[in-house]
Amino acid sequence: MKLTRSVQALGVAIGMFCMAATAHASSYPDKPVRLVVGFSPGSTIDTVARIIGDGLSKRLNQPFVIDNRAGANGMIAARAVASAQPDGHTLLVSNSSSITVNPLLYDDLGYDPLTDYEPITTVVSVPFVLTINPDNPRMKGVNSVHDLVKLAREKPEEVSYGSAGNGNLMHLAGAQLAAMSDTEMLHVPYKGAAPMQAALLSKEIDFGFDTLAGVPLMKSGKLKPLAISASEPWRDLPGVPTVAAAGFDGFDVSFWVGTFVPKGTPPEIVATLNEAIAAVSQDPEIQQRLMLQGNVLNMSPAEFRQKIEHELKQNEDLIKKANIKIGN
């Protein structure tokens, strides 16, 4: 009898807990939501976060506030969200480098991409653009990927490329080009894509795999696009070939911007955010703004998790082939 009553009491307690959790999820969000961004203002990740945040604020009737925590290739922001309350009021807006590259390069990461987060959805998929400064005297006569590789062979370790940080996908793209062309190029890491682009403009470095934020500078002639890093040309840069089409078959490097909440966030809240971001992304005005940053790409949480698992394996092979080693 006592055991039966104990079981009944436990069942009542569990039921009350579940009712409370459901009630909380149904009232979500009930206060401002932070979108923690691991990169500097003006970066693609930051811009996407602001576009989505604006839409979510209107759709869910609470402010979605940007919290930039730039540095360490997104690790500072990722750690902060991993330890946040799992109530849906703190989201990580990250690129694929922080989630599917950092774990393969750093010994003491401070977070696990597969166990510390609930993936919500991807927002956009973004190619890089292999870019030079046409006014850089060191790049005189460089008009194609072939020309760049030829120069790198003539001047080993003198041709430099920038990235948004050690282990960033910009770094991996440059390292892969060097490996595939059997050349030795000098990698120069910066604290984000915007500082790397500034270094291109100031002629500190010779080339970089820039984000689409640099397209206006390319159209104005201040920067010169040589090739697209993904498997397809970019619609806003007609006539610019892919790296693969320029003679490096199989070269395909791009990144996504996606959203996460801490592990343990109620599935109802994850579903609410997934549905809201998908709806916001399909709004014609917001979609037009997102299309300037990349290709709109929304996934279910399960599909997103599978993508992360696949890319971890894929990037591990790439890092081994390019012989990239960082550690702590």
Automatic annotation (TrEMBL):
Q: Does the keyword Zinc apply?
A: no
Among InterPro entries, the record links this protein to: BUG, Bug_dom1
Q: Which residues form the signal peptide?
A: 1-25
- Keyword annotations of the record: Signal
Q: Which Pfam families match?
A: TctC
Q: Which domain of life is it from?
A: Bacteria
**Membership in a protein family:** Belongs to the UPF0065 (bug) family.
State what protein this is by name: Tripartite tricarboxylate transporter substrate binding protein
Q: Which organism is it from?
A: Orrella marina
